[in-house]
Specification:
The complex is a heterodimer of chains A (109) and B (114). With 109 residues, chain A is mostly beta strands. Chain A is built from no helices and eleven strands. The radius of gyration of chain A is 13 Å and the shape is globular. With 114 residues, chain B is mainly beta. Chain B is 0% helix and 45% strand. Chain B is built from no helices and eleven strands. In chain B, the strands form two sheets. In chain B, strands 2, 4, 5, 6, 9, 10 and 11 form a seven-stranded mixed β-sheet that branches. A four-stranded antiparallel β-sheet of chain B has the order 1-3-8-7, with no helix packed on it. Chain B starts with a strand and ends with a strand. Classes of the chains: A mainly beta (109), B mainly beta (114). At the A-B interface, strand 5, strand 9 and strand 10 of A face strand 5 and strand 10 of B.
Chain lengths: 109, 114
């Protein structure tokens, strides 16, 4: 079967760091994506991991452990504009994206 | 236009009516996709096309059809709409299907079937 799990909602404070976790169980694996989606808007690409380890891109970093079926998105120096949903998606054996339901991140001043 | 566009932005439709959602991209991407997004659920793939002239079924294809006559356009048709098709529909494209390429999304169409 195919299953992507991530927390439904998280709250963090402006200027802080937050880690959003994602676990996946799919019939095949060809990489793990993270997308950001502001309310009422389209998803936009943040990162793609296919090898184990941490990939850093400015304030955002993404980590992958293939053996554990686990990824996380790390957001540093949080800004109010980071309030959005963060979608984890696994590229399965058919090269189709299987999406989690998303984590709604609420940033408080 | 630059990127990927969808029309209409929103639509209210009576059950049983036929409806075509339009999607156009000008990035010369080979692959295009249609997703629906419902509250509490992840994006679910309806149909996809890895290249002009070919289409494939995704996770939830029933009640929907697509065509890919050329590279730029990928319309989604609901032959006879039902209330369970009320959703937000996103079209997306990527340089190459069957790869780890980033997908670019259109702004979405909010469809309500009464």
């Amino acid at each position: 079967g195919q299953n992507i799990d991530q927390p439904t909602e998280m709250t963090a404070t402006e200027g802080a760091i937050v880690q959003i976790n994602c676990t996946y169980q799919t019939s095949g694996f060809n990489g793990l994506f993270w997308y950001q989606q502001h309310a009422g808007e389209a998803p936009t690409f943040l990162s793609y991991n296919v090898l184990d380890g941490l990939e850093e891109k400015g304030r955002f970093s993404s980590f992958l452990s293939r053996s554990k079926g686990y990824s996380y998105l790390l957001l540093k120096e949080l800004q109010m504009k980071d309030s959005a949903s963060y979608l984890c998606a696994d590229l399965d054996s058919n090269y189709q994206l299987i999406w989690g339901a998303g984590t709604k991140l609420i940033i408080k001043p | 236009i630059a990127g990927i566009t969808q029309a209409p932005t929103s639509q209210i439709l009576a059950a049983g009516r036929r409806m075509t959602l339009r999607c156009t991209q000008d990035m010369r991407h080979n692959a295009m996709y249609w997703y629906r997004q419902d509250l509490g659920l992840g994006l679910r793939l309806i149909h996809y096309s890895n290249t002009a002239g070919t289409t494939g079924k995704g996770e939830v294809p029933d009640g929907y059809s697509v065509s890919r006559a050329n590279t730029d356009d990928f319309p989604l048709t609901l032959a006879s709409a039902v209330p369970s098709q009320t959703s937000v529909y996103f079209c997306a494209s990527s340089t190459l299907g069957g790869s780890g390429n980033e997908q670019f999304f259109g702004p979405g169409t909010r469809l309500t079937v009464l």
